[in-house]
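[recover] target loaded
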């Protein structure tokens, strides 16, 4: 991962490490806003906690899975644009012509080739990945935090939030990496008339990848993914809990 980052900085410039940051920010505004809202609605109004105030793990998992899938479906167009913009660095290194120059340019070219439906290219693996990641992230954080509060002397403070976020980041990376590999391969495969040439579905991608490269190929990039998720999870949960505290909202 470090070698790749250094190579990008040398070949294209340090600022290229942030290529695709605009659609990434747009995606997170939509995606995170939706997934968090959906999770709490499902937890508090659909699945409900037990009379003793405990949310069973299976209920938390269902809430996280569903919230992640719904949030990602809404945000899929920005995710597609982000991936295509980030791939431009590789195209330049290989001497290939530039495909997209900006977020707006990517949007126009995608819709010109595949129509509005083209913005949801690869939405199925996107949604599957988000469901698994949030089943790991939201469910693990929620379950871990309240387990710590019930079974230790720790209070609802930054230490508890830190420990819970560490666990949620690890579980999210374990569950999400295979889906991330599938999602990236499907979204970056060549297309003809708006349809992928290499893979017909997520399962087709999984079977072809495992057959050609082995099971552990589904975990290619695990450490970079975990290295990205870990600081994100830590920053997000600590910030969220503090924002809720200072705005008078209840703890998550």
């Amino acid at each position: 991962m470090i070698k790749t980052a250094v190579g990008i900085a040398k070949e294209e410039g340090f600022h290229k490490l942030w290529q695709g940051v605009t659609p990434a920010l747009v995606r997170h505004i939509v995606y995170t806003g939706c997934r968090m809202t959906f999770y709490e609605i499902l937890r508090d109004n659909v699945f409900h906690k037990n009379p003793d105030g405990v949310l069973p793990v299976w209920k938390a998992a269902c809430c996280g899975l569903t919230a992640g899938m719904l949030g990602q479906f809404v945000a899929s167009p920005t995710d597609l644009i982000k991936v295509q913009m980030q791939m431009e660095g590789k195209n330049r290194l290989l001497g290939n012509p530039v495909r997209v120059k900006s977020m707006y340019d990517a949007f126009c070219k995608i819709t010109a080739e595949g129509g509005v439906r083209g913005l949801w290219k690869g939405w199925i693996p996107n949604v599957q990945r988000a469901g698994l990641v949030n089943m790991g992230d939201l469910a693990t954080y929620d379950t871990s935090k309240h387990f710590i509060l019930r079974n230790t002397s720790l209070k609802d403070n930054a230490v508890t939030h830190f420990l819970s976020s560490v666990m949620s980041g690890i579980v999210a990376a374990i569950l999400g990496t295979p889906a991330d590999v599938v999602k990236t391969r499907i979204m970056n495969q060549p297309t003809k008339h708006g349809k992928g040439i290499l893979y017909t579905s997520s399962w087709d991608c999984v079977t072809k990848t495992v057959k050609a490269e082995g099971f552990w190929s589904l975990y290619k990039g695990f450490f970079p993914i975990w290295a990205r998720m870990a600081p994100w999870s830590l920053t997000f949960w600590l910030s969220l809990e503090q924002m809720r505290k200072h705005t008078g909202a209840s703890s998550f």
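[recover] notes: The CA atoms of residues 11 and 111 lie 31 Å apart.
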